[in-house]
Amino acid sequence: MIRRALLAAVTLAPVITLSGSAPVTAQDPPQIKPFTVGVEVDVVSVTAVVFDKKGTFIRGLGTEDVELYEDGVRQDVDYFREASSDEAERVPLTVVLVLDTSGSMNKSMRFLQEAVLNFVYKLEEVDTAMVVSFNDSVKGSAEFTGDLDRLERIVEGLQPWGGTSLYDAIHYSLNRIRDAPGRKAVIVFSDGADTTSSLRDRDVVDYARAVEATVYCIGFQGMGPGGSPKGFLKKIAKETGGQFFSPGDVGDLVKVFNEISDELKNHYLLAYTPKREADGSWREIELKVNRPDAKVRVRKGYFHIKRSGASG
C-alpha cells in the first residue's frame, strides 16, 4: 500500500522548540518520534510544484529531470513521485483546514462553508483532512479522517463569534499535522488580523519553517478589527512553498479553494538523506528542473537538529 511505502521512504524534518509557548488546548501535542532508515539516518521530504511561464503545471517529470541542493551541495534523491500517479501509487495528502470563525465572519460564513465543502468533495480516497476553527480559542477535530460526511457535518456546524486567535490556530494545526507521512498541507482562511493569540507571529513563522507542511493562506479583508493579516500570511506561505491569495470578494472563495485543490493534485514529493551531519543549523533547499522555462516552488529550507537515541 502507498501509505506503508511512504512511511518507509519519507520522514518529518526536525522541529524546533519554541521557548515560552503555552499549549493552545488542554491536549498536549504528541512527542516527535523520528523515523530512521538504516542506522540513525534521517530522511528529509520536500514537496514541490513545477510550472511553466504561463502558470501551467508541468507533469511527467522523473528523477533524471531534477537536481536537489542543500546549502549549495547537490543531494541524491532517494524518492521521487508525482502526486497524481496511477491510483495504486497515488501519494496521499493530509490537510488541515484552518478556518476563521470570529464574530466578523457572520455575513461571510456561508460563503466560506460552501468553498470549503467544495474543496473537501474533491479529496481523493487516500487523502485525510481535519478542520480547525478559531475565534477566542482554537478547536480541532479529534482526528484526521477521509469520511466526507463527517467533514461536511463539522463544516456546516461552524458558528461565528468572538475574537481572532490566528497565530495560535496555525501553530496548533502544524502540531497536529507534523507527524503525518507523505504530503502535508495547511490551508488558512482569515478575514482579519490576530486579536487574541498568546503566540507571536514570528514564532509561528519560525515553527512553520521547521515542519514539512506547505501552507496556503487566504486573506480576505472583512469586518474584523485590526486590519489585514496580509503580511503575516504572505510570509508564512512563501517560507513553506505555498501561496497567498487575496480575493476581492467573498464570493470568489470557491475559485480560490479550487485553485489550491488543483495545485495539490500536481505536487511532486521528493526525499533525500542529507550528506552533511545534523548540527542544528538552518539548511537552504533548492530544486532545479532541467526543462526550459520551468519554475519551481518549494519550501525555503529546514532546521537540521541532532537526534539522540532515535529508534525506528
Brief synopsis:
The protein is an alpha/beta fold and 312 residues long. It has helices at 2-9, 109-120, 148-156, 166-177, 201-209, 230-239, 253-264; strands spanning 44-51, 66-70, 73-75, 77-82, 93-100, 128-134, 138-140, 183-190, 214-219, 244-245, 268-272, 281-289, 295-297, 301-304.
Tell me what the structure shows:
With 312 residues, this protein is of the alpha/beta class. It has two domains: 2-14 and 37-89 and 269-304; 93-264, von Willebrand factor, type A domain (Rossmann fold). 23% of the residues lie in helices and 25% in strands. It has helices spanning 2-9, 109-120, 148-156, 166-177, 201-209, 230-239, 253-264; strands at 44-51, 66-70, 73-75, 77-82, 93-100, 128-134, 138-140, 183-190, 214-219, 244-245, 268-272, 281-289, 295-297, 301-304. The protein has a six-stranded mixed β-sheet with strand order 7-6-5-8-9-10, with helices on both faces. Helix 2 runs parallel beside helix 7 and helix 4 runs parallel beside helix 5. The longest helix has 12 residues, at 109-120. It is globular. The two termini are 19 Å apart. 41% of the residues are buried. Residues 1-41 and 308-312 have low confidence and may be disordered.
